Amino acid sequence: MKNERNAFWEKAYSELQAHCQSLGLVFEVVDFRCGVRDIFTSDHLTTELCIKEIESCQRISDGPTFIALLGNQYGHRSIPRLIPETEFELLLSKLHKDSESLKLLNQWFSKDSNSVPPTYILQGSEVLEYEMEHGFLKTQKDASAVLFFRELPRLSKRDCKKNFAKFLLDVTADGLLDTEARELLANLKQRICNTGRLQPLCMELSKGAMDPSRKEHKEYLGKLCEQVTSQMKELISRNALQTSGTCSTVDPGWSWLKQEIFHHAMLSKEKCSVFKGRDSILGKISIAMWESTEACHEPLLVHGPSGVGKTALLCKLAQEMRGVVDHRGVVVLRLLGSSPLSSDVDSVLRGVCLQVCGALGLQFPYPHIANVHEELVRFFHSMLEDVSKQGDTLLLILDSLDQLLEAKKPHKLDWIPKVIPPNVQLVLSISDDYVEKCKSWVSAEQNIFRVELLTDDQGKDIIGAYMSAAGRKLTSEQLDTILNRFQQSRSPLHLKLMLDTAKQWSSCTSMSNVRLGVSAQEVMTQFVESLEENHGKKLVSHALCFILLSRSGLSEAELQDVLSLDNDVLAEIYKYWLPPSHTLLRFPRLHWSRLRHDLTAHLTERWEGAFTFLRQFAELVRKRYLSRDMKADMHAILAEYFLGQWSKGQLRPILLPSLSTLLNADRKVPPQPLWFTGEVANMRKLHELPYHLAHAGKWEELHQSVFGSVDWLCCKTLQCGVSCVIQDLSLCTDLTDCPEIQMLKETFLLLKPSLDFNPSLLVTEIFARLQGLADLYPSMIGQLCSQCMDWFGSCTDPVLVPKCSFFQAPGGPLKSTLTGFMKGDPKELKLLVAGSEDGLIIVWSLNHLQTLHTLSGHTGRFLTMKTLCVFLVTLTSMQRVLDLHHDASVLCAVSSSEGSEIITSAQDRIVWSVTTGALLDWIGVMDSAVSCLAVHQRTIISASVIANQLKVWQLDYNTKHRSKSFIPAYYPLVALSKDGDTVFYVKEGNKTQVFTWSCSEGLGSDNMDVSSEVCCMELAQQKRLLFCGLRTGTIFIYPLDFAPETLCLPPPESLPMVRSMAISPREDKMAVAYEDSVCLFEITSRDSFPCVDGPFERYSLCLLHSPISAMALLSDCRLLYGTFGGEVVIYDFKSATAAELDHHGAAITCITMSNWDAQALIGSQDCVQKLWNLSPVLLNHTMEYKGFYFEGVLCAVFSINDKYVFTGSLDKTIKVWDVCSGCLLYVQFVYSPVIKMMPHKDGFVAVSQHGSFIKEGFRCPDTLKPGYNPLRIFRAHYRVTSREKGLNAPHTVINELPDYNPAQFNFIGIGLMKSKTSNTCVLL
């Protein structure tokens, strides 16, 4: 069957592999005969290993588990390796007259009295039927096997004799046809057919196809592969569908947790099965728990040297406590580091919280809590309190805490609570190397327990239990040898390693030929040396290193693939003979199965089918094999595997010792796509590839395939979370000094707070932060920005496309945002300690930007001193030396660590000043007033009493990375030019001056002074007139094309404050709202110089109404206005009539007209906005938006073609609405409320409350996907109520009029037609 096997690997394997990947499955083939010269080895172990592999496939496979092609040879009928004593003695009794047979049996079989019961072992069941028995005949699964019969054509006796060898027919020793074997083969085929569960497919050879050199034989192989592929695909797809159907009945959110709980339960059961002694320390721990159960207490800490038996002790404690606690009690055990979900803090806490909440009926953590470390730690602490208050009992056991520690990050254990509430017990274990670091949260000596070495009696008890569990025993000589070695160390690990070896001894094994080390390290070294001798040094060293260097273990399929790429291992295997095929080269599976059989005692299963080493054995492998060069080579092979570099038929060259030239062969390793299907990601690639590329030093591939790939970053963020991306980036920054990787790391630190809630915003976040740095860093950041543009261009859903960098960029002063409070002020320490009004205190490490402690119980808020002056204080005097002047009230100030700088906060700005009083830098913004500052070295921490975040700033940063899209001052009023290039604003502390800021030039030097406080501003876009309404009732008008000329409209006699202004679409009229009236002015020109005439009309306001808060002036002299009380009125200046429209429940915040004067959007402080048709006046849509908090609309603008309306809201989002249907199309989080917007090309320009200048385009497909939900990533909902179409004139949407200028009508010559004197005052 050699030709059929080779054909399967060359033609069918890759296609089946791709089919499985498309279903999110891993396709693994276990073929013991592939690449092996002689499978019947001298120790007769192969058949047993083969049966174990069949059983393993049946246990873990979701598809067919057995493929067989029965030809025309029954094959070798092997002698069983083990025969029970009773059966062997019965056999001897039947042969008592045949002395020759008795001699042979006694020569080849020896009695092993160590086996319980005793057995006879063959010294060094036909294989075919034995495999068929276990692979198909015994199983009850209908779709577990694929079987083929190869039948020969009818042959004459002459042809038959001539072709015995060619067709692998069974022959006897003298060359005759073996009729017994033919009969056995026929019976086997009949048994298969008689099962009724499967009808094997018969493949009949023609006479021409019997010759491998002929064309007919190749056609036969092609048809065979087609049939195998077809049958396998059908079964795989059917089983995958059944499995998915079964899984759909179980909550998928619980499946991983159930597997995790089962994993630790099985490990614990295994440890307890041989546990003996330790009654004293178990009793002490139990008493300590009983004495502290009614009061608050510390955790309990168990420690001891490595290998002393701490894990087994805690497993036994968990087992005994389960029998003690009542039905309202829960025992949770985690053997840390034994599985991927027990190898990092967040996964452990997440699993523990879900298990406890599910068992005791507590509220589960919300996703946004479970995915954020700080929130998860807080939930864990509060959960323990809830368990106690509920009166339940909880015992949480966490073994091997050192598995969560990294050498450079000892703070990783600071999530452990220092005070445990009543009815809750927390038992922890750690090695002696870290016990001193735990004294900060376990200080009482009575809560610390040291595990001592074993006594002689305990050692004897463990030997008896261990050997009994294995079904073995020892001779007295063997027992004395083990006890003698054990007494030199008294280590449980040393004893276990010796017993693992002793399990293989028979009663005939002489101790004179056995070497047992006097320590665990020596025993493991001897074991590895024996592995090298039996399996080959290259195979042993490389296989062990691959497993050790993997990030979370390797599956057997992955290890076989990786070894297939390792030329050194393959060269060792094929040292003396050639591989079976010159076009295909795979690592023979039998070699790994034999090695794994010997390694069983040192392997631990981390996840289904994947292994890693026990800790002490891993240290030995690391010291013995991993030189720097070998480590880099191993990581390089692993990186190439997870890159898929040698998949899809790519030939990898190799120089074999048996060949003189390079052999280019297909290694048949699977491709490694980022996504197997649209919903199934390649999690192994996501987890392993960055790790191996970094450690292999393959930085170019890392830049191109990982960090320089938007697809990769999106996939990893969605599947693993932002923290995992930051972890990968931190790994790389520790290994190399690459500014682009550092920039990307800082980017993810900046965007983490928002992406923890909304990971699908990643592309927008990356592009809006990095766009300005693309030219400085073209190789990776420039590549990312280019891919972002491609992503926006191919996006099939509505999307806003950033046109500039308007989020904080990396490399600038802002380094990170710390979350965790509802409200807060920080206190200044070397560590950052912050307290909030709700009594919560959180401690952060400023070096690692991670939570260290969370404290509660205080009821008052923490206050910080405020100052405006700098004093020089000596022992005898205090002298005022400096006054620092600000535009707004200074809320707080702090001195730098060196005392040479003063950092002050005014409103939401942080200002850095030196003691000379010179303003050195404006380093950042917040969207709320900074109420407290703290300094640590060159780091500043700012907080606000009305924000739930702290911001971390750096005094020393690269000014090239400073964002150019921020306006460096707080402003309550703002006006935007239509092209989005210029911003006019007034400062909070200086409202008598108008400042100018340009996108290209920054802050302008030509400021405009006014005589009183500015209350409102409007800009006539086409005529370039800036109107400023003052508190005194005066209106200043700045002709931007005639600077520094200034016009002035004098106030009415009562000097009322100007509340609002509105300019008509054609910019020929302007309405001004005072306290008690609205006046209508005309905008004209004389001799090409602009002027304003009027007022020509006056509309007295109702005293019962609230003051006007917003208004818009239509081209036909109708005025639409809203009040602080929610009233909406439309007034016609021509007919002097007014009509009230639908009332809002809160103050009107914005009234925005469409570009063609046909519609208006009215927004208010509540969640309601209404879209009106203006001719006739009809309500088209009522749009209600309910979000997490603060829904009110602040500003709005229609797109140029009036198809969409953009709104800026208090919830710090920009929303896009469809004008025709009123439906919400898109929501974007922008970190700060947007307060002003203007239409621009295919989108808008806007400014936010904290100074961001935003420019975006909007792309929307003609039709939306079915089920598209713009709120899929937001905790909000919206409702649209529309009038029925057809009852009134339908709304008309003008699609494209890009060149329309609403001011072009009646502009030229308007001034010449006027005969009245202008009321405009020109200031010279």
From TrEMBL:
<dbReference type="Pfam" id="PF00400">
    <property type="entry name" value="WD40"/>
</dbReference>
<dbReference type="InterPro" id="IPR007111">
    <property type="entry name" value="NACHT_NTPase"/>
</dbReference>
<feature type="domain" description="AAA+ ATPase">
    <location>
        <begin position="296"/>
        <end position="499"/>
    </location>
</feature>
<feature type="repeat" description="WD">
    <location>
        <begin position="1193"/>
        <end position="1219"/>
    </location>
</feature>
<dbReference type="Pfam" id="PF25469">
    <property type="entry name" value="WHD_NWD1"/>
</dbReference>
<dbReference type="InterPro" id="IPR019775">
    <property type="entry name" value="WD40_repeat_CS"/>
</dbReference>
<dbReference type="InterPro" id="IPR057588">
    <property type="entry name" value="NWD1/2-like_WH"/>
</dbReference>
<dbReference type="Pfam" id="PF05729">
    <property type="entry name" value="NACHT"/>
</dbReference>
<dbReference type="InterPro" id="IPR015943">
    <property type="entry name" value="WD40/YVTN_repeat-like_dom_sf"/>
</dbReference>
<keyword id="KW-0677">Repeat</keyword>
<protein>
    <submittedName>
        <fullName>NACHT and WD repeat domain containing 1</fullName>
    </submittedName>
</protein>
<dbReference type="InterPro" id="IPR043365">
    <property type="entry name" value="NWD1"/>
</dbReference>
<dbReference type="InterPro" id="IPR003593">
    <property type="entry name" value="AAA+_ATPase"/>
</dbReference>
<keyword id="KW-0853">WD repeat</keyword>
<dbReference type="InterPro" id="IPR001680">
    <property type="entry name" value="WD40_rpt"/>
</dbReference>
<dbReference type="InterPro" id="IPR036322">
    <property type="entry name" value="WD40_repeat_dom_sf"/>
</dbReference>
<dbReference type="InterPro" id="IPR027417">
    <property type="entry name" value="P-loop_NTPase"/>
</dbReference>
